[in-house]
Design goal:
Largest sheet: 7 strands, mixed
Helix content: 40-55%
Mean pLDDT: 95
Low-confidence stretches: none
Number of helices: 12
Number of strands: 7
Bound molecules: D-malate
Order of helices and strands: EEHEHEHEHHHHHHEHEHH
Structural class: alpha/beta
Shape: globular
Radius of gyration: 17 Å
């Protein structure tokens, strides 16, 4: 069974941009970008298996990719094939960025340009891995209650202090997005992230032999992938463009949607 997706231009007349969402959200986090970018581009959003409207069965059950994020990248490739997309601009935020790098490893020829937001190329440290397994256990054992606990934990980390202090509506919206996902989807994604491959070796290839133009975006108040770390990511990718957004945390596309859209449009142009 396939993942759930939405396509602003099923006729495929415009240049495609594929948006890969963060954990533990779903494709609705890209609403503002779809509204804006679909005037000029073919925007495609999708839900990871077990998130939003995608069934968990969409994740490859065995063979290549199991237990890592490659299974998620294979879902994206399957969607490219289903929609007849040869190459696309790929915009991934956080976990979406990890999957974009898996995709780059599996099928670099399918990526026209990369927009990496609030993400990293390194694998998890042993401490982070351990805490992912603990969170996975909390959600597996707690079900809906576990998701509720995850939501209150994550919202504080995902949003910047400026948003937390002044935008109650966005705090509620992000909490609502987390509640829409299944416990199984969340657990599989946590395990996938914990076991993901380090992608640092790919970085010199991106602006070099792979020839992929790259934009790196980050919120100034990001607590999960701080500015200094994102600067390091940009420095490792030849010819990448590095930009940061004021008064935004880990979700600048939601916290500063207008600025984010403008930077994205300028890059795609
Ligand atoms: C995300 O926003 O996708 C997550 O924070 C990624 C992570 O936990 O590493």
């Amino acid at each position: 069974m396939s993942i759930s997706w939405s396509d602003s231009d099923p006729g495929g007349r415009r240049d495609p941009v594929v948006f890969l969402h963060a954990f533990p959200l779903n494709c609705a986090m890209w609403e503002e970008q779809v509204l804006d970018l679909s005037k000029s581009h073919r925007t495609i959003t999708l839900d990871w298996p077990g998130f939003g409207k995608s069934p968990i069965s969409a994740l490859p059950a065995n063979g290549e990719g199991v237990g890592s994020l490659d299974g998620y990248a294979l879902c994206v490739l399957d969607l490219f094939n289903r929609l007849g997309i040869d190459r696309a601009h790929v915009c991934g935020l956080s976990m979406g960025g990890y999957v974009a790098l898996s995709l780059l490893r599996l099928a670099p020829q399918r990526i026209r340009s990369l927009i990496l937001c609030d993400t990293r190329a390194t694998a998890d440290t042993p401490e982070v891995k351990l805490s992912r397994y603990e969170t996975a256990r909390m959600v597996r054992e707690g079900g809906a209650e576990g998701i509720e606990r995850l939501a209150s934990m994550m919202v504080e980390r995902l949003l910047g202090d400026s948003t937390l202090a002044s935008n109650r509506g966005l705090v509620d919206r992000v909490t609502g997005l987390i509640r829409q996902n299944s416990a199984e989807g969340i657990v599989r994604a946590l395990v996938g992230m914990a076991e993901r491959q380090d992608s640092v070796d790919l970085l010199p290839l991106i602006g070099g032999p792979a020839g992929v133009d790259t934009l790196i975006l980050v919120g100034n108040e990001d607590k999960l992938t701080p500015l200094s770390e994102m600067r390091g990511l940009a420095a490792a990718i030849n010819n990448s463009v590095f930009l940061h957004l004021e008064k935004a945390g880990h979700l600048p596309n939601l916290e500063q949607a207008e600025t984010f859209n403008r930077l994205l449009r300028e890059f795609l142009r």
